[in-house]
Amino acid sequence: MKYAPEKVFIKENDTYVEISYQEFCRKQNNEFKDKFFISLHNMLMEVDEAYYTEFYREQRREKYLRERAVEKGDIYYHSLDTEEFCGEDILVDPDEDVAQQVTDKLMAEHIRYIVSLLPEDERELIEQAGHGGGDFYVIREFLACIREGRQPEFDVYFATKTASVAILGHRSMLENGTPYDIPDFRKEEDRAKFENDRLTPFYSSNGTAPSLVGSKREYYWSTDEGRSEYDASVAEYRKSKEEK
After folding, report:
1. How far apart are CA 205 and CA 207, in angstroms?
2. Dihedrals φ, ψ of 221, to 5°?
3. pLDDT digit string, tens, across residues 26-48
4. Comparing C-alpha atoms, which of 10, 62, 7, 18 is closest to residue 36?
């Protein structure tokens, strides 16, 4: 070896025992003559013959790849490896995927172009609809499916599963992070779990107050005053749960 290893580990009764390098050198030609050791991170470790063979086969393969990369002028990522990190890790771009950014931009431009082709009355409806015009497309697609007798791309099961993320997330927050599985209402057992669930953060049409903390206002808009009321309601709800 070019440099003496800092540690040497031998196997005794299926466990590793550390010995000094000097002791290893004394016994190398006698007691350790028929044993197999690999050099790893400035240590020598005893292994079985199969592991020894595979380890150095892979070492030879990596050496060959490095030498070939040098000849061809390629960058060999593993040449950047250190004790602390893998060389490939420092080459990872932490920013958003550029291809995805381009795709999103092209999609947005295409949607704007399609909207520009619509009749003026439809464009006005889009501008007046909620959620930045999103509600218009949802309703338009729903009506088109009825007229054309086809299934919508997002069916009732997908819709309820999507909505349940926010609903159960809100409930989890009220219960100090209690985890909830997102249900799949195609399954009978998941439907049975919620068939008698009447909790809601909204006022009913007959004026009945919410059964789940949401807002004390019948028509809630996000304001500083409203958020303060909501925080107070949450604290009150949690306190009542703890007392039970």
Report:
1. 5
2. -120, 145
3. 888 888 888 888 887 778 888 88
4. 10
CB 243 within 8 A of CB 231: no
Q: What share of the chain is helix, strand, coil (3-state, %, to 5)?
A: 55, 10, 35
Q: Report the alpha-carbon angle 62-66-72, nearest 5.
A: 140
What is the distance between the alpha carbons of residues 141 and 4, in angstroms, rounded to a whole number? Answer: 73
Q: Which residues contact 38 (CB under 8 A, 6 or more apart)?
A: 44, 45, 47, 51, 52, 55, 56
Phi, psi of 36 (to 5 degrees): -115, 130
DSSP assignment letter at 200:
-
Predicted pLDDT at 90: 58
User: What is the helix (H) or strand (E) element at residue 191, kind and residue range?
Assistant: helix 188-194
**CB burial string 29-50: b at 16+ within 10 A, e below:** eeebeeebbeeeeeebbbbeee
Concatenating the DSSP letter of every residue in 36-101 gives EEEEETTEEEEE-HHHHHHHHHHHHHHHHHHHHHHHHT---GGGG--SSS-GGGGG---SPPHHHH
94-127 pLDDT, tens digit each: 666 667 777 878 877 877 787 788 788 877 877 7
Domain boundaries, the chain: 7-91, 98-148, 198-244
Q: How far apart are the C-alpha atoms of 138 and 130, rounded to whole Å?
A: 11
The values of phi and psi at residue 33, to 5°, are: -60, -40
The CA-atom distances, in angstroms, between 88 and each of 17, 34, 92, 99, 119 are 33, 37, 7, 20, 53
Single-letter amino acid code for the residue at 85: F
